[in-house]
Amino acid sequence: MLRIGLTGNIASGKSTVSRRFAELGARVVDADALAREAVAPGTPALAAIANRFGTAVLNTDGSLNRKTLRELVFNNTKALGDLNAIVHPEVGRLRAQRAREALEDGMIILVDEIPLLFEAGLADQFDAIVFVDAPADERLRRLMHNRGLPSDVAQAMMSAQGDVAPKRARATWVIDNDDTRDALIERTDVVWQDILARVGP
User: Fold this and answer.
1) Residues 6+ away with beta carbon under 8 Å from 146
2) Exposure string over 84-116, b if 16+ CB within 10 A, otherwise e
3) pLDDT tens digit string along 91-105?
4) Quick count: other Cβ atoms within 10 Å of Cβ 143?
5) Does the predicted model carry a pTM greater than 0.85?
6) Span 45-86, pLDDT tens digits
């Protein structure tokens, strides 16, 4: 089974590429979905988060209040490090579980969509990496227009991620999302053919 890491900075178009890979036959695992599963009510990770940050990070139904938690760790390196130390191992366990399931199901291509793939030091876990990129001004526009974020918040979110150039250099394939959605799909299809060629007959 060929394991592909799919990444890209915020608002680059990763989700569109991910959905297209799934349509073409890949099994796709979304790191954000795994992170939500890792901190679902009743999980050890959620209990550890509440123990570290206090019950204020919990909603009345016992679920995680993501907005409150984000505010606590934003621009706080120590707090963010503590949070990552709780969540990342559990996400890694779930990712390994999904990989075993994909293998058992006879999948030949597994795509892991991980926004912070390089930042988390996970690049070596994959056979190849797809990096989706878009111009910074366009990503800023999407964050403000599509997600309703104020400019300063959008800029801060973009700045929190690593520089694009080293990521482009380390990727096996770069898909530039600087045109229409149809163009992005076409470019994704070209990369898919390359991926299939790596799998072999």
Assistant:
1) 11
2) eebbbebbbebbeebbeebeeeebebbbbbbbb
3) 999 999 999 999 999
4) 20
5) yes
6) 999 999 999 999 999 999 999 999 988 998 888 999 999 999
Q: Is 155 exposed, middle or buried (0-12, 13-18, 19+ CB in 10 A)?
A: middle
DSSP states of 136-183: HHHHHHHHHHHS---HHHHHHHHHTSPPHHHHHHH-SEEEE--S-HHH
Q: Which residue has the tokens 């973009």?
A: 158
Which domains, ranges and CATH numbers included, belong to the chain?
A: 1-26+108-201 (3.40.50.300), 33-106 (no CATH)
29 contacts 95 by C-beta, under 8 angstroms: yes
What is the SS3 assignment for 98?
A: helix
Whose CA is closest to 112, among 191, 31, 178?
A: 31
At a CB cut-off of 8 Å and minimum separation 6, what does 125 contact?
3, 5
The three-point CA angle 82-83-84 to 5° equals 95
How far is Cα 69 from Cα 102, in angstroms, rounded to an integer? 32
